[in-house]
Amino acid sequence: MALIAGKNTKLAEVHPAVGYIAIWAAVIWLSMVEGSQASLVGLPPVDRNLYKDSHPTSYKITNIIHRGDNLDRYLMGRQFMVLLIVFVTNLAGSPGPDAEVFGFPDAVKETFLGSGLAMIIMTANIGQLAAQVNASHCMIDYINNYFAVFTIAVSMAIEFSGIMHASYLIQYAVAALSGNEIKSKEDPRTALLSAFFWGRSLMSVGICGFGFAVIFKSLFEGNTTMYDIPGWSSLIIFIVLLSVVGMLEGMQIAFFAVAKLPKSEQGQNKFAKLTCKLLFRGNGKNLPGFMVGRQLTVVTCFFVAARVTTLKMQVNEDGVQIDPNIFGVSDGLQKFLETGLHAAVVVTIVGSISWQLVASAFPMMFLTNPLTYVLLRICLLFEATGVCCAAWVLASLHKKIAGYQYDEVYIGTPDERLASGKGPEESIHVVAGSLGASAFPKKPGSGGVKFGDYDDTVHVPVTQDA
After folding, report:
1. How far apart are CA 137 and CA 38, in angstroms?
2. Contact 294, 248 (CB under 8 A)
3. pLDDT for 342
4. How open is the CA angle 446-449-455, to the nearest 5 degrees?
5. Quick check: 111 and 303 in contact, CB under 8 A?
6. 324: buried, middle or exposed (CB in 10 Å: 19+, 13-18, 0-12)?
7. What is the C-alpha to C-alpha distance for residues 253 and 202, in angstroms, rounded to an integer?
8. What pLDDT, on the 0 to 100 scale, is given for residue 268?
9. Counting Cβ atoms within 10 Å, is residue 318 exposed (0-12), middle (13-18) or buried (19+)?
10. Within a domain: 466
């Protein structure tokens, strides 16, 4: 806030009021984006009629998002929305090159401000983690408002633009390699809709491909902010970071997908049992604890990834660029690439959305993966350091002010719903397809295919390993 008051950020240079409005609007909006994801991914196994009367807005939202393939569309649009919000937050709050605040020495300014640590702590605690802590247990209450309606509508509009459609192609490829097929819960596309879909997909592949080309060329020519190491080393680091971030994104979706299921439906594989036992131990505090630790892990990976991918051309003593523009692009496009937005699009498609879409189709594939259990332990260890314990305080205050209640207050526990006959059809979906369609799987005897730990034809766990 002091940086903005001193006009030491890009948006504050216009006027401090612009900086203040932009940063707080972005952070507050981000909290709804993060919270609504937890709610919409976690609620599919619950019969919507159980909260139709008590939460009419939540019912209307889930009635749309959990129809057909809309949840996958929402996840895609919402992820790019996070990218844009964080981009605005950085413009509003990141310090300029000669920023002065509170008389801090240069070492402190570089460590706390120049590295982005101050922005990470503020954004993670207020805009992400506090929302995820509450929404992981108060899913129905969290989206029972028109702010959620507006946020979800914007996410769906972003998906419609097609910028991130390359993620669908990756999802299809993973399904094909696993010997399965993505089964849509919607009618087959008409010729016109197919042309529109594939046209947007090609556009997205072109954008992503150009982003990759810029990253690779800048890496091997040493035109990034990465430490002075060989280009191949930077490339390996980049790939590892994308893989870790992708696993964490997929784990998040898989964990919320089974959060409302009975224990018998949470997997019979050894690692699925270990993961769920640790995740839902006691009163389930480890689920929001994972979200806190996961956010810290992801932020750490993004911090290193930003150094690996951010374009920085060589300049002389007078600040004049020595190297020619990358690929000979115009000066305007060169300046745009130096913002790092092209790298953010690549990371969002390849390291985030694609993994979420795969997890929405194959949640058990993540639960039965030994690496999932290892990363869960690491995330809980990060949370235990207390770096982001402010999120718990903020979440508690928000919960009391908003009057949130645990979902079980309204709909009972999964086992109680099964015992009372209110949720006999609840089960995680077992074929590749939309997570949003999993709330009402086929009845026993209606036919189905085996996948992972479940047999859809009888709705009981089977003993095979995924």
Report:
1. 9
2. yes
3. 82
4. 85
5. no
6. exposed
7. 26
8. 67
9. exposed
10. no
Residue spans of the chain under pLDDT 50:
424-466
Please tell me the pTM assigned to this model.
Answer: 0.73
Helix, coil or strand: residue 310? coil
> Residue 129 and residue 117: Cα distance in Å, rounded?
16
Helices (H) and strands (E) counted in the chain, each on its own, are 22, 3
Helices (H), 310-424: 331-337, 341-348, 354-361, 363-367, 370-384, 390-402, 407-411, 414-420
List beta partners, residue 321: 315
Q: What confidence tens digit (pLDDT) does each residue in 180-200 have?
A: 777 788 888 899 999 999 999
* pLDDT given for residue 228 in this prediction: 64
Counting the structural domains of the chain, the total is 1
pLDDT tens-digit series, residues 66-96:
988 898 889 888 888 887 888 788 788 888 7
Rounded distance, CA 174 to CA 160, Å? 23
Instruction: Name the one residue in this structure whose structure tokens are 């305007």.
Output: 332
Q: Which candidate, 300, 297, 304, places its Cα nearest to that of 248?
A: 297
